[in-house]
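Handout, section B. The chain below has 313 residues.
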Amino acid sequence: MIYVIADIHGMYDPFKILVDYIYKRASKTEQVSKIILLGDYIDCGPSSKQVIDLIIKLKTDFDTVTLFGNHEEMLLSFYHKTFNHVKTGNFWLSYNGGLQTILSFYPQSILFRKEQFPNEKMISDLLHYEDVFKLEPEYLDFFDNLSSTYQIKLNQSDKELDLLFSHSVLSPRFSLEEQLAIKDWKGLYQFLDKNSCDLEETHIWNRQLLTHQLKDNLTVIHGHTPTRYYRQLTKLLKLWEDEENSPFVVREKKNRKLVQIDIDTGLIYGGALTMLAIDDTPNVENIFPYYVSVDPKKGFRHKLFAKKELDLT
């Protein structure tokens, strides 16, 4: 079984519940062949460092793939002073939850030496100091070496299915090959320079709803955009709560081919943290047997996918 999780955002407790579930399944002779984490491990929530510590432990116990999201990109851009340092810092710290990440990793930061929690002006005034944010080598190595995308092929009956994992949706504007050639965050900046495009057009920020597969039999599994946004966009938002915290599935209208599955169920917006299970047993009937959600308001939840939703035959 493969387990996929996206958009933890410094929320350790629900993440720990899902991780405990994986360990429990593994102890019951289930083969956990891979864990794939789709980025945005940090920011907004209070426990980014604890989340990363748990991911590092997962990497020692399981075959774990770790991708970077837009929040890791903001951290790296700020830390390595890739672009305008003050502008990047203000955007990350004031508007995207970066303050909580710095407080988690580096509470002795100059940002927190006054009784008042820093506001935007205080942040701007202090960003030129070196003592704003420091990472221990283990953590800097973790962030520096996050991957861009991950791809696997699975067999279902007589059909081969191509699964592409990314933080967000790849853009139809650029060739698939060119986007898959991005290996890490440094490669992302090379891509930006080459194509003269903005981050919002890349696979870590793009919120586009795809209408067709980017390649025949290719399904994109991603996070980044809360599923509620897509349901509102397509006027499919259901009023009963059971729909709120389920993955959002997109098919081609004409032939019903599976285009994308969004598993960001909006944890930091009052939703849940969701984990998608993928059965990688050869020729299995249903590759997507279930998902598991942790809604802080309700606790643990395990739900089978309705077969009519993800019938890949």
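Note. The two ends are 20 Å apart (CA to CA). Compare this with the example in section A.
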